[in-house]
Amino acid sequence: MNRCLVNSKSGNTRRVGRAPRVPPSNHVQTRWDSLRSAHPTGLFGPVMDDTGRRHGFSLLELTVSVGISSILMVGMGSALFVSLRATEPSTGIAAIAADAHEVVAQMTAELQFAKTIPASSANSITITIEDRTGDAADETIVYAWSGTVGDPLTRQFNGGTVIDMIDSVEVFFLQKMPETGPVKFVLIEVQVTSNADTTIQSAAPLVNTP
Question: pTM of the prediction?
Fold first, then answer.
């Protein structure tokens, strides 16, 4: 659309055309050209080039990329599987050792309050403790192991059912201290697997024995 300009002094009128478009500055055009050169397929996907054609990924490129991705995923899955299989044994051993710790803690507490020790050996011990059942009679507890690797450590209360406290034991050893004279405490050692890290040791001071 043309416009008319009026000279305020002379009153003459002249017709002018539309103002020409200002071309972009050189540094803006240079930046745009560099971006197009660096990203021929577009910053955010395929774009139209100067000839009007769309640039995208070829079938070969897609096939290669999918193949590489599949190989990486299989490798990561294999590594994860091996890692899980490697941690399973250690996790099982830790759980077994934790259960054995609880048994040794219970045994230590019961030995600590033993009134008498009627019988004992390296693999078994019989103790009496204060009444727990309300019949005014002392209770008798027996801890025993056969001495055969893999056999359980058992506990028997007042001649009742023998209960497996630890299903499989490699070592169960008891030692009264001192070896002569009144017993002051009992050393306990339990190993639940062939792994020496599962060895549990405790000392039960006898507070009620003469």
Answer: 0.58
